[in-house]
Design goal:
- The chain is mainly alpha-helical and 458 residues long.
- The chain has a single domain, classed as Glycosyltransferase (Alpha/alpha barrel), CATH 1.50.10.10.
- The protein is built from 13 helices and nine strands.
- The protein has a three-stranded antiparallel β-sheet with strand order 5-8-9, covered by helices on one side.
- The radius of gyration is 20 Å and the shape is globular.
């Protein structure tokens, strides 16, 4: 068990570091807004400190503009609101009707979702027509995302960009867009005017992810360790039967890619919060399944990450044995064997914090454990070597990894592994988790992806 979970730390202890974080964040956003040429595509990750594009899927553009909106939320500086609103309206429309990806929850909640949330929370002057525009965008996005559907025995899932046979653990975070779309009163219209419930599809996807992407130490296969995740689950599309685990960005289907693990940690916990706020969607079985998956994955993260809360990119990476003992000491992002992934840490921290808050009234000991673990991860990210203090580097959080198997990450001269670079999703999720804490410290309303967007109707 790593040391970070027994530290005595409260959100307000990080206030000075958080203020410094937002100062640096502002400078990074301004620099990218000034230098980035939109015709180049979406900024994905840095090479020698400069953001570059990488054609695969356009899943990071929402993080670019969403970062400005999070900055405005935290600081009130309207410069960033103007950037986020301008570029969302001018550039994000193709993402609403993009039927070839599983990334709608990433791109569109980060932009249209943040804008309507800020307006409904009173942080942006209310404009009914503008609010309706953002709500319509979320409705459309949820329905288009739900069209990527594979039916399996007892349910179904939204398939990844790999095709109908492929369930990605990442996609759990796009369940949010279906839930929002449904809560706003929308449905997916199918053949013969069949009305397809977006909430039902989101819930089926959650249940499939919990069953096939997450392990529980219950004898599923020879590598069944409680809490580990498979990046990809493969199905036979002829009969819908599950075939095997796989991985695109991890080392193998039988090891745990830690960013995929982090998506599950954050995704299940966010959905627990949504189900608590919208009980009409909840059942005992759904809540119990999401909670089981959230606790298992968060426990696995705590047990398989370094003492400072930063994980290696995959818990089964082939050279990790050269770093033994690997988990009872702080991370070393410049070690010569295997890279860490700070972006996984930024995502995982939010899952830990939210799970801790979710359990406050029912399990005090577990609540404190998870919340403290999340705080300790954030504390590490808020200081070097992870916080980028160099104005010549456009990234905010250093030592992120994109696609280790494909060799896409920049390896500095004289080094043997990728290090020292940032990613757009890592920077965004760092801002997201720090905003979460900023609002707690300032006694603002609790921050969720659905805050104020849709109201429960009994």
């Amino acid at each position: 068990m790593m040391q970070m979970i027994i530290d005595s730390i409260r959100p307000e202890h990080l206030k000075q570091a958080i203020n410094r974080f937002w100062e640096l964040s502002a400078r990074k956003i301004r620099a990218i807004d000034k230098s980035w040429e939109p015709s180049s595509g979406s900024p994905v990750f840095t090479v020698k400190g400069k953001y570059t594009a990488r054609g695969w899927t356009e899943w990071t553009q929402g993080f670019q503009y969403g970062s400005a909106l999070l900055q405005y939320d935290a600081t009130g500086d309207t410069f960033f609101l103007d950037i986020g609103r301008r570029d969302t309206i001018n550039r994000m429309a193709p993402h609403l009707t993009h039927e070839g990806v599983h990334d709608h929850g990433f791109n569109n909640i980060s932009t249209y979702g943040n804008l309507i949330r800020l307006m409904r929370e009173g942080k942006v002057p209310h404009n009914e027509r503008e609010a309706d525009f953002y709500a319509l965008a979320l409705k459309v996005s949820g329905a288009v995302q739900a069209m990527r559907w594979t039916t399996i025995p007892g349910g179904g899932y939204m398939y990844s960009f790999n095709g109908p046979h492929s369930l990605f653990v990442d996609t759990i975070r796009s369940c949010r867009i279906l839930m929002l779309s449904d809560a706003l009163g929308h449905v997916l219209m199918g053949e013969n005017d069949k009305k397809i419930s977006l909430a039902d599809r989101a819930i089926q996807h959650l249940m499939a992810t919990a069953k096939y992407s997450v392990y529980y130490g219950e004898g599923r296969d020879a590598y069944d360790v409680r809490g580990r995740t498979a990046h990809e689950s493969i199905f036979n599309v002829n009969d819908g039967n599950y075939r095997c685990p796989n991985s695109q960005q991890g080392y193998s289907g039988f090891t745990t890619w830690t960013r995929g693990l982090a998506w599950a940690m954050c995704g299940f916990t966010e959905e627990l919060e949504f189900l608590a706020a919208f009980p009409k969607y909840a059942s005992d079985d759904i809540v119990a399944t999401c909670l089981k998956a959230a606790r298992a994955t968060c426990d696995f993260y705590i047990e398989h990450t370094c003492a400072d809360g930063i994980p290696y990119w995959d818990t089964g990476a082939p050279n990790l044995h050269k770093l033994d003992p690997r988990y009872d000491r702080p991370s070393d992002p410049e070690n010569p064997y295997e890279p860490v992934d700070s972006s996984a840490a930024a995502i995982a921290a939010q899952g830990l914090l939210r799970l801790g808050k979710y359990l406050e009234q029912t399990d005090k000991a577990a609540s404190e454990k998870y919340f403290q673990a999340g705080l300790c991860v954030v504390r590490t990210l808020l200081q070097p070597p992870y916080l980028s203090e160099d104005d010549h580097h456009e990234g905010l959080i250093l030592h992120s990894v994109y696609h280790r198997p494909n060799g896409w990450d920049y390896i500095p001269e004289g080094k043997k592994i990728p290090c020292g670079e940032s990613s757009m999703w890592g920077d965004y999720h760092a801002r997201e988790v720090v905003l979460y804490l900023t609002r707690l410290i300032n006694n603002e309303p609790y921050y969720t992806f659905f805050s104020g967007i849709a109201e429960e109707k009994s």
